[in-house]
Amino acid sequence: MSALDVARKDFAAARRSRSLWTVATLLGLLTTLIAFGYSAYRVPPTVTVVRLFRTMGTVFGLLLPIVALVASYMSIAGERESGGVKFLLGLPNTRRDVFLGKLASRLAVVAAGVTFMFATATAMAVARHGVLPLSTVVGVFAVSLLYAAVFVGIAVALSAAVAERSQAIAASVGSYFLLVLLYVIPGVSVALLVRFVHQVMLGFERNVDLYNAVLYTSPLIAYRKALNLVLPGTAQRQVLQRASEGDTLPAYLGDEVSLVVFAVWLAVPLAIGYWQFEGADL
After folding, report:
1. Which helix (H) or strand (E) segment is 187 a member of?
2. What's the pLDDT at 256?
3. Could you tell me which residues come within 8 angstroms of residue 214 by beta carbon, excluding any fewer than 6 positions away?
4. Are 105 and 4 in contact, with CB atoms under 8 Å apart?
5. For 228, which DSSP code?
6. Which of 121, 162, 180, 278 has the fewest Cβ atoms nearer than 10 Å?
7. Confidence band (pLDDT; 50, 70, 90) for 38?
8. In Å, what is the CA distance from 231 to each residue of 95, 138, 199, 252?
9. CA-wise closest residue to 141 among 113, 168, 105, 182
10. Residue 31 — φ and ψ, nearest 5°?
11. In this model, does residue 112 exceed pLDDT 60?
12. How far are the Cα atoms of 44, 71, 93, 157 from residue 55, in angstroms, in the given order?
């Protein structure tokens, strides 16, 4: 066997999961309802559909991490808890084969779910408005796939680093709170915390670029910035605050940097997770 064999076996098992089919169906219905109910006042149909997919991006920013974490949090931890990992390693597999195979399988599962969600939304948008701004739809789809892949990588890495279901659940919930919710909940957000520490506790002058740089460490903020790379100029959103009206953001806070943030969140957790799995007592 090899990493590819592990991926095929795991994908076949995941494909039969009722919970994953249920989640995919519910999210497909949700995207269909959003596409059906969305309308804009006195704008051309093409603009309406572009705004629809911009709104879908906002929704996906919160939902896709949940999909990725639910689909991946037990990928390796489940095998360790059940003892199945010993069977996998009893075959001519290395720990690297198991790790990469599980990662590839869960990436494929989540990609299939995201594709289904976009397909339903696109079909409804075309049926209702009669237009398809292909570059926008494909761009948002590609960025969303990359965003989901980041959280698949995080979930697989966490799953490789723990040995029990309870630990995997706790790690996944904690990662969603720290990387997503903590950046959007009013009153307890990272932005307010950083400002409080910087200005009140340390007594420094207000530095908006510093606060933005801290916010930009979140995959969620990177996803919102990355959407600006594929949306028309009129549909782009101001994700980060500017120091004053008319100011431009420094280069390190540009939209293109979002791809670097994604790359870091893909590479670093996977490297740490593999290192923990390689040295774990199974």
Report:
1. none
2. 94
3. 190, 191, 194
4. no
5. T
6. 278
7. confident
8. 41, 10, 35, 20
9. 113
10. -65, -35
11. yes
12. 17, 24, 44, 30
Chain Cα centroid distance, residue 38: 24
Q: Residue 137 corresponds to which tokens in the numbers above?
A: 């739809």
Rounded distance, CA 20 to CA 123, Å? 22
> Minimal CA–CA distance to 213: which of 164, 162, 251?
251
pLDDT tier for residue 282 given thresholds of 50, 70 and 90: low
Measured distance CA(159)–CA(274) in Å, rounded: 10
Q: Where are the alpha helices (DSSP H) in the chain?
A: 3-15, 18-37, 45-72, 77-82, 84-90, 95-129, 134-161, 165-179, 190-195, 208-215, 219-227, 257-278
The separation between CA 189 and the C-alpha centre of its own chain, rounded to angstroms, equals 19
pLDDT score of 1: 56
Give the model's confidence band at 96: pLDDT under 50 very low, under 70 low, under 90 confident, else very high.
Answer: confident
Please give the pLDDT value at position 246. Answer: 63
Predicted local confidence at residue 19, as pLDDT = 72
From the centroid of its chain, how far is CA 198? 29
User: 16: which 2 tokens?
Assistant: 């039969």
CA distance 28 to 33: 9
Helices (H), 188-247: 190-195, 208-215, 219-227
> What local confidence, expressed as pLDDT, does residue 83 receive?
74
